[in-house]
């Protein structure tokens, strides 16, 4: 039986932070499912850095069909979860089904990969207290408020929790996540 990985996301997620792990994990032989608030066509965004802007800019990105709604997710069927960033985590952290899903993964000590604004979701379920994490650098105060020890690095590993700052750090993020994932739930 193929090992299943869950990606939790929604509209306004950063395109690269959903699609890169989706494709990379499939390449490794994992069965990857995308869950969102509802089964629908999701509209992602592209965050980029441009001269003269104090922060990132946002443009329309790719669309992608959600395989299932959060309410349909049985976390016990999945070996790990990926939490992309973008603006989606701002509203997703209020979804009770998503909070149930993330709590289940954290309580079971299953691998969790989070990037950019994704740690807002694990913070919302009190999953960062006492842990080392990174996130989009502007979230450092939020991570500290959640009880985490923030590190500004490409990838930070704390047990089964692997975090990264943003899509430019994908290689380091997936390299570390796959190391954890292969130890806990090899694809074959």
TrEMBL record:
Segments crossing the lipid bilayer: none
Domain DJ-1/PfpI, first and last residues per copy: 4-178
Family: Belongs to the peptidase C56 family.
Organism: Streptomyces glaucus
PROSITE patterns: PEPTIDASE_C56_PFPI (PS51276)
Xref: PANTHER family: DJ-1 PROTEIN, DJ-1_THIJ_PFPI FAMILY PROTEIN
Origin: domain of life: Bacteria
Protein name: DJ-1/PfpI family protein
């Amino acid at each position: 039986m193929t090992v299943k990985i869950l990606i939790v996301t929604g509209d306004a997620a950063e395109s690269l932070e959903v699609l890169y792990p989706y494709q990379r994990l499939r390449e490794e032989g994992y069965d990857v499912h995308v869950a969102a608030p509802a089964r629908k066509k999701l509209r992602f965004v592209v965050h980029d850095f441009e001269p003269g802007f104090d922060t990132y800019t946002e443009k329309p990105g790719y669309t992608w069909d959600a395989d299932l709604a959060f309410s349909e997710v049985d976390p016990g069927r999945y070996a790990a979860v990926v939490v992309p960033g973008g603006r989606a985590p701002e509203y997703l952290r209020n979804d009770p089904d998503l909070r149930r899903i993330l709590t289940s993964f954290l309580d079971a000590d299953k691998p969790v990969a989070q990037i950019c604004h994704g740690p807002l979701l694990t913070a919302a379920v009190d999953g960062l207290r006492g842990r080392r994490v990174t996130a989009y650098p502007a979230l450092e105060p939020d991570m500290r408020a959640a009880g985490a020890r923030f590190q500004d690095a490409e990838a930070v590993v704390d047990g089964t929790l692997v975090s990264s700052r943003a899509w430019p750090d994908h290689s380091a993020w997936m390299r570390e996540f796959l190391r954890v994932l292969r130890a806990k739930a090899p694809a074959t």
